[in-house]
UniProtKB/TrEMBL annotation:
Protein name as annotated: ABC transporter permease
Compartments where located: Cell membrane
Domain MacB-like periplasmic core: 102-323
Source organism of the structure: Agaribacillus aureus
Membrane topology: Multi-pass membrane protein
NCBIfam families for this protein: perm_prefix_2 (NF038404)
Length: 866
């Protein structure tokens, strides 16, 4: 059989020819066909497989000089020559179509800048509290309170819990109790000789530095805070007090907070927590000191936070099952269960519904990640539309290239390379935009973001650029390279129905995104306005508060005597920050199966009147009662307790008999994310009333605060007068929502602008395609208005389709966002119709100038063959 094949006219095998055609031009291959046959004639004495590759090698050696010369100069052979050729073609294209080039550059660079800014923000959010060495083993103990109305999840845990878990749970390596800086007893003044510094501290148990890997500069982490009179301070505080860290160890400082005035020995210095930490503090005090200040606090009193470091290999699921009923072993009547949550997850996953995680700030991370992708996609679609419109001017060019032998893959690479090059040029402009707008972006987001060109950022930049370049160039490359030479050389372009709807679909997608963003911005704005103006049940306007350790009647009398002061009272009332709570309240007729958790507030005389809180029964605290065993409940608490005629009745709280003297109308002592909870208000002794709230007459703020400052400094010369407006504290509860509202406005505006450019591109495509038709219609008597109606009809229909698609989608999105609020606005129909009308108006304005220019074209000029 082999001999029969050998006697046949020898022809080069197909594999060898394919191999050569990959390297050589077809016309050159035809010229040397005779030489190829002659070369092959010496290889029939071996197998076809060996002959094929032996022949290919001989051909390469025989034609090496010609091949090398061709390889160096032919862009189809040499990658460098190919790049140089494509770059030159792209440069000429950009130079010829300057307007389209600038529009593409603006759209892509703006979209990439938005994506990069959002990446910086998302990356920062995702790395909050992730800096601990044993992050995967560090957990916070949470408490689920089960009662007849559902399950409530709180961070506060019983005072002895950390010690109890460490003793009884072998899976725990270390356990620590922390009274965080948000508690009023953790704020005070440090005095060293004549230097006084306002400081924020937290009370921690002994294994704090074994549990949390904060860097300890000085001291032994196994021994510090072993004495209740010891204190550990930050490096920054040490420099303020002693001008160095070396000389601070062993020094004595005077710590004053409330009625505490104690000398403490500096036994350690730690590096201040990084900017990605949620918990910031200046000094650490012994947990034993906290227990000394709060004698008698037991398993029914929940104030501190408890954190544990689990041993490697511990199953979190099994451990949660084990500690679930731990509190029942300490208090058989307890209805609370425990579970662990990873410490670094608390920032992003901080909301619960019936004891189950229900999101939190992670929703904003996801939201802005999606917005970044959509903004970038809208910019890429804009490039596609303009490139497709421009392709009409290049149909003959494409036809000629195909006739002379250009392959579709080569054309695709050329146009894809053009889009990738545009993406890299846009990246340069985007980086300039990011540098320009990053300070303002930091101001809006409340962060200190910066461009650090590490490996992660470089990879992200390359990913964004390649994504933008490939997505932007994919459709134009496929579309342009598919032109048929015969049709293109005649100046005709027969677009398929699929190609037409692909272009229309791109525009519909752009404007659907714009409508969703407009609706979202509108709803977020209305919700933020609602929470800012909602009646909270107390008056926070023109109310300031400040801390002091030395409250007495003489001091309060002098404050109330200031002409601009309407009233003043002491307590711990801070918007959104109740001080712990308790489920250890017992009353006559209590259902033993129900153990509601009561948030706990303290109020001195006149505080309720100062804040304008209403009483629905009884009266506020008064010295006329002659006893400090007075309490006030809110309406929700009385309803949960099922008490009728509660005034004068006695309840038992932590083994103390207390008398109900009033019922306060429900007020929002937490944010509007939360429903109003049962609350008990105690008559505040000095230790629990460190904050003096002062109601100031409107218009007299400056002079009244100056007089307050002088009285304060005279009364407490060793303290620092540092006041805050209560309304500012309340507004900070919704800082995230405000930032979302502001950023959403910016991104919605950019999406509309970029979408308008895409619509402009499609209109340019339509006009160029129908230019002769428009000229003929004008010759036959068509009016300018008729031409405008003809051109705008199709575009109007596309925008209407986008609105119809976007409105139900936007309804679902904003409804899901509003579900996080216990108190929310009602969605109005005009939010959605208004967004649709605004989008339509923007679309008409975008294409209006182009239409006016089109209808003024001379029909004779439009009928010429170009």
């Amino acid at each position: 059989m082999l001999k029969e094949r050998v006697t046949m006219k020898p022809t080069p095998p197909k594999g060898a020819l394919r191999f050569l055609r990959w390297f050589c031009r077809e016309d050159y291959l035809e010229e040397i066909e005779g030489d190829l046959t002659e070369l092959y004639e010496g290889h029939y004495d071996t197998s076809p497989f060996k002959a094929k590759w032996k022949f290919a090698g001989n051909v390469m050696r025989y034609f090496r000089p010609s091949f090398i010369k061709s390889f160096k100069t032919n862009p189809h052979l040499n990658p460098i020559a190919m790049f140089r050729h494509n770059f030159l073609m792209t440069y000429r294209s950009f130079k010829r179509y300057k307007r389209l080039f600038l529009i593409n550059l603006f759209g892509l660079s703006t979209g990439m800048a938005c994506a990069l800014l959002i990446f910086l923000w998302v990356d920062n959010e995702m790395n909050i509290d992730k800096f601990f060495e044993k992050d995967d083993q560090l957990f916070q103990v949470m408490q689920n309170l089960h009662h007849t109305h559902g399950v409530e999840t709180i961070e506060a845990t019983p005072v002895p819990l950390a010690k109890g878990l460490a003793e009884e749970m072998p899976e725990i390596a270390f356990s620590v109790a922390v009274v965080p800086p948000t508690f009023n007893i953790s704020k005070g003044v440090i005095a060293v000789e004549d230097t006084r510094v306002k400081a924020t501290g937290q009370y921690v148990s002994g294994d704090f530095f074994n549990t949390f890997s904060y860097r300890l500069i000085r001291g032994n982490k196994n021994k510090i805070l072993s004495n209740k009179n010891e204190v550990v301070i930050s490096k920054a505080l040490a420099l303020k007090l002693f001008n160095s860290t070396e000389s601070a160890i062993g020094k004595t400082i005077n710590w004053k907070a409330r009625d505490i005035n104690r000398l403490c020995l500096v036994s350690g210095i730690f590096e201040s927590p990084p900017s990605t930490a949620t918990n910031h503090f200046d000094l650490l005090l012994s947990y034993e000191l906290f227990q000394e200040i709060n004698p008698g606090a037991g398993w029914g009193d929940s104030s501190p936070r408890t954190y544990v470091l689990l041993k490697p290999g511990t199953s979190i699921g099994q451990f949660n099952d084990k500690i679930g009923s731990f509190l029942k072993t300490k208090d058989k009547n307890s209805k609370a269960t425990l579970f662990l949550q990873r410490y670094s997850d608390r920032y992003l996953y901080g909301l619960y519904e019936n004891g189950v995680p229900a999101g939190g700030r992670i929703e904003y991370v996801r939201l802005f990640s999606i917005i970044a992708i959509f903004i970038l996609l809208v910019a890429c679609i804009n490039f596609m539309s303009l490139s497709t419109a421009r392709s009409l001017r290049k149909i003959k060019e494409v036809g000629i290239k195909k006739v002379v032998g250009a392959r579709r893959g080569t054309l695709m690479m050329q146009y894809m390379g053009e889009s990738v090059l545009m993406a890299f040029l846009s990246l340069v402009v985007a980086m300039l935009l990011v540098v320009l707008f990053l300070p303002h972006f930091n101001l809006v987001t409340g962060k200190q973001l910066s461009l650090n060109f590490d490996a992660d950022l470089i990879l992200v930049l390359l990913a964004i650029t390649l994504f933008a370049g490939i997505v932007s160039g994919s459709y134009p490359a496929l579309y342009i390279s598919s032109f048929k030479p015969a049709s293109t050389l005649k100046g005709r372009l027969d677009s398929s129905l699929g190609a037409i709807w692909a272009r229309k679909g791109l525009v519909i997608f752009q404007f659907a995104v714009a409508v969703v963003l407009i609706v979202s911005v509108w709803v977020v704005y209305e919700q933020v306005k609602f929470v800012q103006s909602e009646n909270l049940g107390y008056d926070r306007d023109h109310v300031i508060y400040f801390d002091t350790d030395n409250v007495n009647e003489d001091f309060m009398f002098k404050i109330r005597s200031i002409p601009g002061v309407l009233n003043a009272g002491g307590g711990n009332m801070v918007a959104g920050k109740p001080l712990g709570g308790t489920n250890g309240i017992h009353w006559e007729g209590k259902d033993q199966g129900d153990a509601p958790f009561f948030s706990r507030l303290w109020a001195g005389y006149n505080l309720i009147e100062t804040l304008g809180m209403e009483m629905v029964a009884g009266q506020a605290f008064s010295e006329d009662f002659g006893s400090h065993n007075q309490i006030i409940f809110n309406e929700t608490a009385i309803e949960r307790m099922a008490l009728k005629d509660p005034i004068g009745k006695m309840v038992k709280i932590d083994n103390s008999e207390m008398q109900i003297v009033g019922v306060a109308k429900d007020f929002h002592f937490e944010s509007l994310y939360e429903e109003i909870k049962p609350c008990v208000i105690f008559l505040a002794p000095i230790i629990y009333a460190p904050k003096v709230s002062v109601k100031i007459r409107a218009g007299t703020e400056n002079e009244t605060i100056d007089k307050l400052r002088r009285i304060y400094q005279t009364h407490s010369p060793e303290e620092v007068f540092d006041f805050k407006f209560m309304d500012d504290d309340y507004q900070r509860l919704y800082a995230s929502e405000k930032r979302v509202a502001i950023l959403s406005r910016y991104f919605a505006g950019l999406a509309i602008v970029i979408s308008g450019l895409g619509l402009f591109g499609l209109l340019a495509f339509t006009v160029e395609k129908r230019l002769k038709e428009i000229g003929i219609r004008k010759i036959l008597g068509a009016t300018d208005l008729g031409i405008i109606r003809l051109l705008s009809g199709d575009l109007t229909r596309m925008v209407l389709i986008a609105i119809i698609i976007a409105l139900p989608l936007s309804y679902l999105i904003v409804t899901k966002w509003l579900d996080d609020f216990a108190y929310r606005i009602d969605l109005k129909w005009w939010y959605f119709i208004g967004a649709g009308l605004l989008t339509m108006l923007v679309a008409w304005l975008t294409v209006g100038t182009q239409m006016l220019k089109t209808v003024r074209i001379n029909p004779a000029a439009s009928l010429k063959n170009e």
